[in-house]
Amino acid sequence: MFVCGVNEKEYKSDIDIVFNASCTTNCLAPLAKVINDRFGIVEGLMTTVHAMTATQKTVECPSSKDWRGGRAASFNIIPSSTGAAKHFHMELHFHIFSGCQIYSRNCEI
């Protein structure tokens, strides 16, 4: 995974598959890199807030994944995990972030 301003110099022409990072990673990684390079970051926590996504339920129903996944997305703020922190660890070599995301009907929290 490549994020402009963070690790695009690691790209080599023999790489066949290239993909860009998630919206969360694209927003946080450049800022985190600048702060970390200049001052150092000991630990970080990122929280993202999303509107409903295509995979969320619009009405209350059972979820095989977890009990929160069965809540109606249009009426609840649903805590969830985010893969962005994982990408920070694996791809961008920032071993300082953990993260969560919050889904809501709208982003007015």
UniProtKB/TrEMBL annotation:
One of its GO terms (molecular function) is glyceraldehyde-3-phosphate dehydrogenase (NAD+) (phosphorylating) activity. The keyword Oxidoreductase applies. Pathway: Carbohydrate degradation; glycolysis; pyruvate from D-glyceraldehyde 3-phosphate: step 1/5. Residues 28-87 form the Glyceraldehyde 3-phosphate dehydrogenase catalytic domain. GO terms for biological process: glycolytic process. Gene3D superfamilies: Dihydrodipicolinate Reductase, domain 2 (3.30.360.10), NAD(P)-binding Rossmann-like Domain (3.40.50.720). Its EC number is 1.2.1.12. It holds the Pfam family Gp_dh_C. Keywords: Glycolysis, NAD, Oxidoreductase. Belongs to the glyceraldehyde-3-phosphate dehydrogenase family. This is glyceraldehyde-3-phosphate dehydrogenase (phosphorylating). It comes from Triticum turgidum subsp. durum (Durum wheat).
